[in-house]
């Protein structure tokens, strides 16, 4: 169980989770909601439209202005964060040079940061590790103790297998309640992952996706003869790396821009995290000052 | 300046250049297995040009260079330089500097090489060596080692010693400049006075008076400068002293082993005609003594350092008429003398070398480059080892 290093904690301190669509859970929290009701913070007056609840009409204003206005109020409510980690075999890939961290290790680091941000904001959080061996949830909860429980669960996650089909994922759907923030940490190479993200976004969840890429995939630094093996299926490719490089880089960047277009269409916030960057870089992009404006 | 090879077949070692080329080829089996998740965007190209590729260019080039230099070293390269055609002047060591200055050759210039006429031909700046090597042998050596076009001047004193029996024959025309003076004469050792021990037994007692006469003749000459010879009678072999140089044995008894050893150590023994010859083979004996008519009177045979001389006629006046001559002691001394000094003095003009058209000239010895090349090879080998070790460390790191 590795705690985050203090400099990362310092960088995370000003961050807070925010959902693009309004959160609507019961209880009190920091986030904007669409609940209307009295006793809450005033939001705006809106003219009456047929069908509005008569109890929301502000009669004092009617008395003053002789027109019907509906008083709208804001209510702060908590957000639930669900971190879904892709634990398929492709996450076992390591960089050739640099630190010996696999993609899953990096995703675990990002998950720990996200959990820390949720804790700072007083939000509920829970974890998921997804591969076709098991779909393992850590149920939602609050507080530092739950954070430690989540970190322990992160430690026990291992890579292997492929992305499960929809039938196996259905228990997860029930936990990912609508109006919760879903943070998906995956390499997004498999279409099934992006499909699930689109479906989640379409059904009312606020989906943030962090595409975790290794530096070797971005740069393709290999040279000489290599036997490339896809870890999830048995596909291999024998080739000379220098000859394959330019083609690969072109196609890979095309695939990444396709993914960005798709996410923009679906309303999914996408950040790309490279293995050689700082662990909180993508979360800064999503939830930091620049993310807030987006 | 031309590079030559003494052993061109050493270049066959260049075939070994193929070995590093083969070792450095990128091998097909060297396929590193890489787990690559983004494989779907990696498209195999139709196996392209299979040009052989080499890894580690620098190390390969260094190794090829090293092997090429080793092959060159095996072929024994030499650098045939421009021959040194500066004129030479050799001076006999007996001539001192003042005379030299007075007799500088006419066509000497600033780059004339001045040397002593002595073994090794030291430069004129060094002190004059003491030399007693014959001039002819030195001149022949010089003639053979110098290139043919080099003008040679020899400065010798007028009276030469240590000469050969004929003029030296050289392969070039040289300038022979005798200057007044005499050569440092080789001191011929003065002939040692002979101490003759004589013995005549009963059968040869006729010779005894003549022996005593010879002894008396020599005794009277003792007042003259130069040691003279002495002759004394001994009753038997035991009285032979170590410093006796000669033994006159006019007797029949065989010579015992001790006296034979004395002969081998450098004694001269004169045997009578009928004395036992000992165990020697007189077939190869040379005639030591001729009579005035030319008949051989004695034969000699060398044995170790000594000489056996055997009379062919009895030592009596009837067969040896010279015994009655007044010069007989000198004749006897001359016959018994083992070595004779050879006359070696001559006038320089009569000793001027002649030209021999058939004389061989050795070409200028080219300078061998083997040592220099070996040094370069060792240096390159050190660099290659350092480079190889650092690349190993880099690759394994």
Describe the structure.
The complex is a heterodimer of chains A (294) and B (397). Chain A is built from 10 helices and 10 strands. In chain A, strands 5-4-3-6-7-10 form a 6-stranded mixed beta sheet, sandwiched between helices. The longest helix of chain A has 26 residues. Chain B is of the alpha/beta class and 397 residues long. Helix content of chain B is 25%, strand content 21%. Chain B contains 8 helices and 18 strands. In chain B, the strands form 4 sheets. Chain B has a 7-stranded mixed beta sheet. In chain B, strands 4, 5, 6, 8 and 16 form a 5-stranded mixed beta sheet that branches. In chain B, strand 13 and strand 14 form a beta hairpin. The two termini of chain B are 50 Å apart.
Strand segment tally of chain B: 18
| Main beta-sheet annotation of chain B | 7 strands, mixed
What form of chain B results from the Cα inertia axes?
A: elongated
Average pLDDT of chain B, rounded to a whole number, is: 78
- Mean pLDDT across the residues of chain A is 83
Strand order of the largest sheet of chain B: 10-9-11-12-15-14-13
Uncertain segments of chain A: 22-26
Overall strand count of chain A: 10
Oligomeric grouping of the chains: heterodimer
Gross geometry of chain A: elongated
Alpha carbon gap, first and last residue of chain B:
50 Å
